[in-house]
């Protein structure tokens, strides 16, 4: 791995948590990471707990993020949350394009590209999720699907927008299923993503953080992080327990030291 890429391990809490849970988990996580491993760390809490989480991790290496954002910055959009609101609550990272948003909310590649642009304009970090379904994987369409999802952003924002951005490759068939791509399978897709970016700009491709997501646990993290193009992880269920999540973070720091 290039020395320019510092690994990023991010927890996606999804629809989980309370104020008490947030306080307990982040307090424990700070203690687990007291030796400050050389790895960027973030947690994407439900947005109602974002400000609390940001206060709890202030002064630590842990940053906060959100799981979604609206494309509008203000106005009559009942129930939505703007990028400025998330920024005001301390968010640095914003997850967009997660398969659950694509599936349950019918978010298109073009709409996700709009969100990417809004996040970049605000000076925050988009975490663009890409990945194929099990049917697409079995049909040999993985690279085509991932390229299409990335190209929507390139066409809308330009390749330079990926400077300082993050891509999370999450095979849909491995999210919350207990199934995980083998390290070799994941590396092949990560290498394809970097090569695809490099066709537009080699320097941008070299510095882009590409995370793996999909049933990442402390038991499989080290093998995944040993791959040259896997720069960290977007972690779901395993991020809801401090010791296990810390073990994943420490595995990333060790593998990329």
Automatic annotation (TrEMBL):
<feature type="binding site">
    <location>
        <begin position="12"/>
        <end position="14"/>
    </location>
    <ligand>
        <name>substrate</name>
    </ligand>
</feature>
<dbReference type="GO" id="GO:0004807">
    <property type="term" value="F:triose-phosphate isomerase activity"/>
</dbReference>
<dbReference type="GO" id="GO:0019563">
    <property type="term" value="P:glycerol catabolic process"/>
</dbReference>
<dbReference type="GO" id="GO:0006096">
    <property type="term" value="P:glycolytic process"/>
</dbReference>
<feature type="binding site">
    <location>
        <begin position="236"/>
        <end position="237"/>
    </location>
    <ligand>
        <name>substrate</name>
    </ligand>
</feature>
<feature type="active site" description="Electrophile">
    <location>
        <position position="98"/>
    </location>
</feature>
<protein>
    <recommendedName>
        <fullName>Triosephosphate isomerase</fullName>
        <ecNumber>5.3.1.1</ecNumber>
    </recommendedName>
</protein>
<feature type="binding site">
    <location>
        <position position="215"/>
    </location>
    <ligand>
        <name>substrate</name>
    </ligand>
</feature>
<keyword id="KW-0413">Isomerase</keyword>
<dbReference type="GO" id="GO:0005829">
    <property type="term" value="C:cytosol"/>
</dbReference>
<dbReference type="InterPro" id="IPR035990">
    <property type="entry name" value="TIM_sf"/>
</dbReference>
<dbReference type="InterPro" id="IPR000652">
    <property type="entry name" value="Triosephosphate_isomerase"/>
</dbReference>
<dbReference type="InterPro" id="IPR022896">
    <property type="entry name" value="TrioseP_Isoase_bac/euk"/>
</dbReference>
<comment type="pathway">
    <text>Carbohydrate metabolism; erythritol degradation.</text>
</comment>
<feature type="active site" description="Proton acceptor">
    <location>
        <position position="170"/>
    </location>
</feature>
<comment type="pathway">
    <text>Carbohydrate degradation; glycolysis; D-glyceraldehyde 3-phosphate from glycerone phosphate: step 1/1.</text>
</comment>
<dbReference type="GO" id="GO:0006094">
    <property type="term" value="P:gluconeogenesis"/>
</dbReference>
<dbReference type="GO" id="GO:0046166">
    <property type="term" value="P:glyceraldehyde-3-phosphate biosynthetic process"/>
</dbReference>
<keyword id="KW-0324">Glycolysis</keyword>
<dbReference type="Pfam" id="PF00121">
    <property type="entry name" value="TIM"/>
</dbReference>
<dbReference type="InterPro" id="IPR020861">
    <property type="entry name" value="Triosephosphate_isomerase_AS"/>
</dbReference>
<keyword id="KW-0312">Gluconeogenesis</keyword>
<feature type="binding site">
    <location>
        <position position="176"/>
    </location>
    <ligand>
        <name>substrate</name>
    </ligand>
</feature>
<comment type="subunit">
    <text>Homodimer.</text>
</comment>
<keyword id="KW-0963">Cytoplasm</keyword>
<comment type="similarity">
    <text>Belongs to the triosephosphate isomerase family.</text>
</comment>
<comment type="function">
    <text>Involved in the gluconeogenesis. Catalyzes stereospecifically the conversion of dihydroxyacetone phosphate (DHAP) to D-glyceraldehyde-3-phosphate (G3P).</text>
</comment>
<dbReference type="InterPro" id="IPR013785">
    <property type="entry name" value="Aldolase_TIM"/>
</dbReference>
